[in-house]
Structures are given as structure tokens and as C-alpha cells.
Specification:
2 domains; three-stranded parallel beta sheet; two-stranded parallel sheet; 5 helices
Length: 121
């Protein structure tokens, strides 16, 4: 069973019952440590932990930023993004409320997952 609970209660439920956790990643700092702590608490011996994210690849950093601006600031359906955030996390204890405006912006790119910007190889 997979679980996507990001709150403390959701992670506790997953640790007791799931063999896979889809972990929310509002920022990269501490992701590896959080995954390690979760695996240590998990009831099953070989639990999988996946972090959510999305990738934007372009040849240069400037092209990445230009494309991100295009899809997030120019192409964005602000009402739809706001409704997603308001519906998905109406009383969330895991949503970092101090970063709500950033999550509203990111809601357009991939359900508010963490952005990874890279050049193709």
C-alpha cells in the first residue's frame, strides 16, 4: 500500500501500514534525513520512500527561468491554482504556511511539487 500523508499523523499511519511513502518536499534541506527517519520507524523491512518533484530542462539557466516564468507567471490559471491549494490543504498541519505564496505559484507546474532545474545531458 502507498501513502501520501505529509502530516505527522499521515506519516505515522504510513509507518504502521504502508510499504511506500510519497513524501512532500517543500524544500531540499533535510529530505534525506526525513526519509531515513521514516524508514527507521516503518513496520515493514523494505519500505520505499519517494519524494515528489518535477523537472524543467533547457540548455541554459536563463532558458529554464524563462520557461518557468512562462508556465507559472504568464500561462498560469491563478484561480485554478488557488482552488487546488485551498482544496488540497484546507486545514493542513504539514503545509508550510509561511511559504503559501510559493506553493500557489508551484501549483501550476505539478501539483506544487519541488522544482528541479537542469540542463539536458
Amino acid at each position: 500500500m502507498a501513502s501520501a500523508g505529509a502530516s505527522r499523523a499521515g506519516r505515522d499511519f504510513a509507518a504502521r501500514n504502508a510499504d511506500c511513502l510519497l513524501m512532500a518536499v517543500p524544500e531540499l534541506d533535510g529530505v534525506a534525513e526525513r526519509a531515513k527517519r521514516y524508514r527507521e520507524r516503518a513496520a515493514l523491512p523494505e519500505v520505499e520512500v519517494f519524494a515528489t518533484g518535477h523537472v524543467i530542462c533547457r540548455e541554459s539557466k536563463a532558458e529554464v527561468e524563462e520557461y518557468y516564468d512562462h508556465i507559472v507567471r504568464e500561462y498560469r490559471d491563478r484561480k485554478a491554482g488557488d482552488r487546488l491549494i485551498d482544496a488540497a490543504w484546507p486545514s493542513s498541519k504539514s503545509l508550510p504556511h509561511d511559504r503559501l505564496s510559493e506553493l500557489r505559484e508551484r501549483s501550476v507546474t505539478s501539483h506544487a511539487t519541488f522544482p528541479v532545474f537542469r540542463r539536458p545531458r
